[in-house]
Amino acid sequence: MNTLHTIAQVRAAVSRARQEGKRIGMVPTMGNLHAGHIALVEKALQRTDYVVVSIFVNPMQFGPGEDLDSYPRTLAEDQKKLLDVGAHLVFAPTASEMYPEGMEGHTRVSVPVVSEGLCGGSRPGHFEGVATVVSKLLNIVGPDVAVFGQKDYQQLAVIRKMAHDLCLPVQIMGHPTIRAEDGLALSSRNGYLSAEQRAIAPILQRTLQQIAAEVQGGRNDYAQIITEASQRLSDAGMRPDYLDLRNAENLAPVSDDTAELVVLAAAYLGTTRLIDNLEFSRS
Ligand code: PAF
Predict the structure, then answer these.
(1) Cα separation of 105 and 101, whole Å?
(2) For a FRET experiment, which of 37, 62, 93, 252 has its CA 20 to 30 Å from that of 78?
(3) Mind listing the domains of the chain with CATH numbers?
(4) Catalytic one among 5, 37, 164, 175?
């Protein structure tokens, strides 16, 4: 397994693999890999012959005051995990390789509607940064299949829409969230939590499960369900950023006709922002 740092080197390596008739898979990441990322790599390995994992903490998707500087960078450990799982190539560019003229005048990819509200509401410009870097990474590698985690539910919806609208010749695949035994969704940001906060964190997923159970039990006073659940999160010591029920397919607001739903949440524990979601059918 090689680690390459330039676009030209990666293009040359992928083109050799293609000449050998291999199907190319890709898993874009920001590194600090955990079992959730490794599951994405395993899925790509099952579906393709040559898997490229990118590791790039993309400055364009971080807002002012967010954790760009403190985001964990653990390339050596990440390389070992990727070698063990059988990935073929790591692409770890620098910011100047990705944005040689800086980000100011850089072309941006914006995906309206689906980027609005939820994380897009709390993190202005975030999804533009994600869509821009993911389209660059897909254009650099040219994979047949790219795999993303469903923990970032809105991100996956944004990327699917972008790939569809821009006619990108890639199949975008989601992979279910990998969780700790107590239900907490695995995330690089869990490493910021103190022991006390880590003990509280699983309440986020439990709250989403309670909301799903209430809707499945026939309640349709959605705003009241959300108000009560937000209060439970606050009582547990979290500061809810958003909590919302949406149509699972297009993230539109729910009505009584919506059959497939998703409940999504972001909440702060101290300064750490955790996100999670739960898809469910009404019956
Ligand atoms: O989900 C992530 O880790 C990032 O948002 C992604 C998709 C790698 C883009 O930087």
Answers:
(1) 8
(2) 62
(3) 2-175 (3.40.50.620), 188-278 (3.30.1300.10)
(4) 37
